[in-house]
Amino acid sequence: MRLVLIAGAFSMLASFILTPLLARLLRRRGLAQAIRESTDDVHYPEHQTKVGTPSMGGAAFLIAVALGYVVAHLVTWRAPSYSGLLAFYLTFALGAVGLADDYLKIFKQRSAGIRARTKLIGQAFAAISFAWLALQDPTNVGISPASQAVSFVRDTPLVLPTFVFVLWVWFMVTATTNGVNLTDGLDGLVTGASVMSFGAYTIVSVWQYGQACVWEITPRCYSVADPFDLAVFAAAFAGALFGFLWYNTSPARIFMGDTGSLSIGGGIAALAVMTKTQLLLPLFAGLFLIVTMSVILQVGSFKLRGKRIFRMAPLHHHFELLGWQEVTIVVRFWLIQAACVALGVAIFYAEWVRQ
């Protein structure tokens, strides 16, 4: 447990120090994300007060996550696990895709960033390679970080062929990263919601470690590779985001950009796969799912009926156009995420108690 606490505390401190330094550097160079402006055809919420706010803040908390994880292992002199390294691989691979997107937004002043097709290809490569690597067992411990079974709170009897499993992981990664990306539209919204997601995975992973089958094979034990190290990764991510939130909350001094949102989605998806709680992902990422569904419903309704359901999608912009204050929307959406995450943790624990 000491490893988890050290990772979370150090990453929070590192993020708290690095974020304003990055914000100051970007502001001095005049590097800020372009803000979409309303036209006669499309009306966007008024965000002119955000003009000049630097982006790419995700780079700061990603460095903090890595520092927290490394320092915790150095202090306790414990080697990182294959599962932990895989979680970092998917996180940073998707962060690189987001970094390319932020580069175009900031340096080229293209508010749309890279083409959607290019972004999807990058996400697909990261997800597919992660899925294949997660099925391997290079350390010969007898269990790979992922199994081909569809999981709920543990593996179910439904085992997928390798090709289908890879597609399943690709779907989860793409859905989660794009869900986080769509939700990243208001100061602090994604950051606060993601702290809850990674906090939940910290609790789940610590519990799985305490009830792991390596200690004693019982009907209640969990067959998860490296659950403790996954808890360290999740705690480091939660801590880094907590430190970043100090500067990202309204009025934000820096935005996370796609570097941050895509990497957050990757971290959450990696934990869902390797903690074998795939079907709990809709709850642990509940807010991101709701926002994504608002976009799907909006587009589907307009194409089929020629009418829009919301004034604007994603959902948080709908409430902005209704006149809600930004802070009010963020706090209420945090409450929705808190309820989803609490329900997910309750279901996870209830399954263990019921046996």
Task: Please describe what this structure looks like.
By secondary structure, the chain is mainly alpha-helical. It has one domain. It is built from twelve helices and two strands. It has a two-stranded antiparallel ribbon with strand order 1-2. The longest helix is centred in the last third of the chain and has 29 residues. The protein is globular, with a radius of gyration of 20 Å. The model has no long low-confidence stretch (mean pLDDT 90).
Give helix % range: 55-70%
Characterize the biggest β-sheet. 2 strands, antiparallel
Low-confidence stretches: none
Number of self-contained structural domains: 1
Succession of helices and strands? HHHHEEHHHHHHHH
Terminal CA distance: 26 Å
User: How many β-strand stretches?
Assistant: 2
The strand line-up of the biggest sheet is 1-2
Number of helices: 12
Given helix and strand content, the structural type is mainly alpha
Fraction of residues in β-strands: under 5%
Shape estimate: globular
Mean pLDDT: 90
Radius of gyration: 20 Å
Summarize the structure.
It contains twelve helices and two strands, in the order ααααββαααααααα.
Task: Quickly list its features.
single chain, mainly alpha, 355 residues
Which helices and strands occur, and which strands form pairs?
Layout: H1 2-28, H2 58-76, H3 82-107, H4 116-134, E1 149-151, E2 155-159, H5 162-183, H6 189-210, H7 227-248, H8 257-274, H9 281-284, H10 286-305, H11 315-321, H12 326-354
Antiparallel strand pairs: 1-2
